[in-house]
Amino acid sequence: VPPTSRPTRPPGACSRTEATCQNGECIPRAYACDGDFDCTDRSDEQNCDYQYQCQPNEFQCDNKKCVLKVWRCDGDNDCGDNSDEKSCSPNPAGSPCRYDEYRCLSGDQCIPKSFQCDGEFDCQDKSDEIGCASPTITQPPPETLTVEEGETVTIVCTAVGNPTPIISWRLNWGNIPPGPRVSVSSENGRGTVTIREARQTDQGAWSCEAINSKDSVLAIPDTVLVVKPKAGVCRPPLFNEKASVSSDCLRCFCFSVTETCYSSSLHVIKIPLQTEIAIIALQKDGRGNYEDVGQRYTPNQNAIQYNSANREYKVEAHVRNDAPRDVHHYWSLPPEFLANQLNSYGGYIRYMFRYSAPFPRSTPNIADIIIKGNDLTLYHVMKQPFGPQRDNNVEARFWEGEWHKTEAQARGDVSFGDVTTRQDIMMVLQNIEAFYVRATYDDEMIHSSILNFQMDSASLSDPSAPQAVFVEKCSCPQGYTGNSCEECAEGYSRRKTGSGLGDCVPSRVPCNCHGHSSLCDPVSGECLNCRHNSEGRQCERCKRGYFGDARRGTPEDCQPCPCPLITTPNQFSPTCVLDTDGQVTCDACPIGYEGRRCERCGPGYDGNPNIPGGSCRVHGGLQCDPVGSLTPDPSRTTGLCQCKSYVTGARCDQCKPHTFYLNSESPLGCIDCFCMGITETCSSCTWYRDEIMLSFTSSSQGVTLTNILRSYNINQNLQVDSRNRELVFRNFATQPAQTYYWKMPPSFLGDKVTAYGGRLNYTVMYVPGSRADPNLDPDVQIMGNGIVLVYRHPELIRPSSLHSISIPMYETSWLRSDGQPATREHLLMTLADLDAILIKATYTGGTTSASLADVSFTIAVDRPTDGPRALAVEQCRCPIGYSGLSCEDCDAGYTRSGAGLYLGLCEPCFCNSHSSDCDPETGICRNCQHNTGGDFCEECLNGYVGDASGGTPNDCQPAIEPTCQCDSRGSLGLECDYRNNCPCKPNVQGRNCNQCKEGFFNLESRNPEGCAPCFCFGVTQQCSSSSYYRSQVFIIYLNFRRFYLM
Q1: Which domains does the chain have, with CATH numbers?
Q2: How would DSSP label each residue in 530-584?
Q3: What is the pLDDT of residue 399?
């Protein structure tokens, strides 16, 4: 056959390396069936095999069957066509076992990999079932990654376990895009996914899943991948998403490990100063450097006072302790302003200071702010003048030109010196070791104070805040992590090189478990599943209750403590040591036992602990506290009292730490401090028991009937039997057939944490009808904070007779709605915000009448009453921002956030610096100042213009309006003056006289001065109207005996 030439493709046809869409378009052949639409008619993704993909943690066989990935290359034909055993790794060089086999520790036996950790011994030395462990994530993927379209990004995740886990990936819980554009690898527990030519469709949550034959585990967190379009003025190595001209761009710093970065997706937040702060003493040396001289001239920390109302820290003159005049005092900021603060770059430090000074003044020339970190010190000096007896505002930005390497340079006293660069600021912010703010403004130092200190930072917590565009998000190479690649990833450690932070290099270490384990973390080297009674990172010490030298490397290294015998119940000391003379010393003999090995009884104790079952007992017998002991008499074995779980002491008469109030009704002896998970320090409160009572003499007292879902209510035809003081309903025959409950009025609801340890008392009676089949609904149901708890009375409630029921308000009385026992946390969370208390009214179908009487609810009040102390109610030592006996409320100036356990955390009100007061639950600001309004004081009032989010008193300025609109509540008249201002009452301000002046509240027309002054016991001048409602206290006299007119 004569040779033929390759036929030429017709004009306009796609090339050989391209695929042709149904509409004639050409795309790269690799783009067909890759999970993304590349043809405009989407024909490139039609009739593709991937449409029948298996789950992400499954392997797809050639016959389209799906099997678990851990079954691949395990020696078993799980697919049926043997495709899961194809393309496996070659046999290990020099190994007697194949790729699909497990080598037993003896070295002379191979078993199929699928036999390892299957619950049965297959190795003769049983090593195939030793150390089996579910996967544990050791290096989760980064929380966020940002790349630009077209770039390549790699995500890494590592895990340990036995068998070694494989790493699988998911995108938005589904399959990841197919290869070759997206490729994965998993080797020795380290998995990577590489995404090439990143596209918008790659955005989302990339999940790492570690799988072995024992279990599968998802890493936390997922990596949220953000793919930014190729747009904007700034391109790597420059960034600034909001730049309008090239001069607005910043150069990527990224600690010199990459030149690719973008503006972060974080938002600006403010870190307020609201924790303890200290004063330090600094003195300038001959070169102008500041030296800490606190050892020689120790400041008096008792001179510091704190006013929480305006976040003012004040220091008095006696802080000096006779220090010379050239010793200057600075505020030393607490840990929340130290360490890594790179997210503050481009942000501001803002605060106010006040001080008093005699005349004439003697003002020292010293720096206003000093920050130190990574062997660098930067200084900031105020440019504007300041003075005593007035408010002085300071604003310093983390920006080039704002900081200097010497105080003289910052003050402008010298014109030479190293210029402080962005690199210098970033190096200090990476690890702030000291943060000092000036407190000395006059040599006499009468007193000075710092108010409303806050520092800008950035996080994801407030999406409504401005974007932190000056915070870089770098595309870090392998081994580095952090927004600026400032940290080493897990499995890497810092190697100091050059002038920067140094390089991140792999830090893998070999296993060294002293023969007590064959499995260790491949990253940290920490041993897993230590055996032979050993423990520690390298199985280097004996477990509690054993002695010996675990480092010798034999199974007999650790032996049980002979105290005096090695078997219970004659092992009286839980610990022992191998002493210098080679003998064992028991170092925790209990009370009543003496000797090196607890082998004899002490004075006042009788018995013989050396014979099996023998012990030492108090001569004449030990009296155990019956409230805190499990049994009235000491143990026959040990001679000691057996305490309840939360009780301690020889007689079981003391509460353990973090518990309080030893009492007989608590099943654990004492009550644990709950404190809404905010603190663990509490005690019995100082309040007294009181009762909320309902006496049905003239009205229903707000009680109604409802069903268990509270969807059907009855408030008509409720009859009051004043003679028997009970509430009766007799018209059930006209109502839908269902179980009805008495619903308690609002006085029983809300914050009732003080009801803990009290009682809910009531008396009920019902009269059944002809159909008297009993229902199984609970007797009482309480609801609050989304929790439902029920009470079931242990005795039968018989018809046509009064039943008085008293429910102890302990968790042991209540069940969850799923029938499981309630915990103390469940009950206190419910009581913190009670929505409803329902008491069962109808116990059978066809009930004709039901009555309720003698309802009372025991609570506690903060004043003496005729009742006892409420000792079962905790009084927690709440941190700043929290209030309430159980820290269940946010303090003034704080509001509830969505983070944290139980009720959530309390964070400062966010009112754009125009108010310090907000609703503690919703966060909506109250009493907005500076001509602002809105939920967060973010808007200028009518008649004012500007940006209220600027956070300064001058954000909103008067606008020129044709006429004013006088508020009749605050105006003396409705006529405007020549400036279009209304005539305001004395305590009112604003063009329209519609705002109270600072220090006043409650604008109303009947007040001749417009607003009432804030009292607040002189502590602050900022207040607003309370959220309380008016109510009346009624006194019902049942008889008039022993009443006299005087």
Answers
A1: 136-228 (2.60.40.10), 238-264+472-506 (no CATH), 270-459 (2.60.120), 508-560 (2.10.25.10), 561-620 (2.10.25), 688-871 (2.60.120.200), 962-1028 (2.170.300.10)
A2: --TTEESTTS-EEPTTEEE-GGG-STTSEEE--SB-SSTTSB--S-EEE-TTS-E
A3: 93
